[in-house]
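Hi there,

I know you've been waiting on this one. I reran it after we fixed the sequence typo, so this is the corrected version. Both the input and the resulting structure follow.
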Amino acid sequence: MKKRIYYWVAEEFVNRPIISEVVLKTRIMINILMAKIKPHESFLMLELNGDKNQLNDAMNILMKYGEVEDVPKMIQKDNNKCIDCGACVVHCPVKAIKTDEDYSIVFDEKECIGCKNCVKVCPTKAIEILDI
């Protein structure tokens, strides 16, 4: 199973090796998709890969040290507004947006991390991230 989350580390635990603890205790695979670490705050976007028990155990450990929120998964494109300019393709950090053979924009929801870069750069406001 794969689960993507936003993770905010509580200030008092910023210097603690939380991700290492989760990996060692649960044997789950964690991909750090994005991280912003500062002296008094830290925010990560994580992808957890494991079975149901590993995911539950990992989430319990993470919640001891901070706040967890599921990454929204649904990308919606308004085909009436989209001009297939490709601005969203260039700014997608995980290549969840591509152009197909006829140069129209195609979204891969399973790869989307919900970063909203595509929403911000779309000149026609044709893209929306839906919370589900």
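Quick highlight: The longest helix spans residues 52-65.

Best,
R. S.
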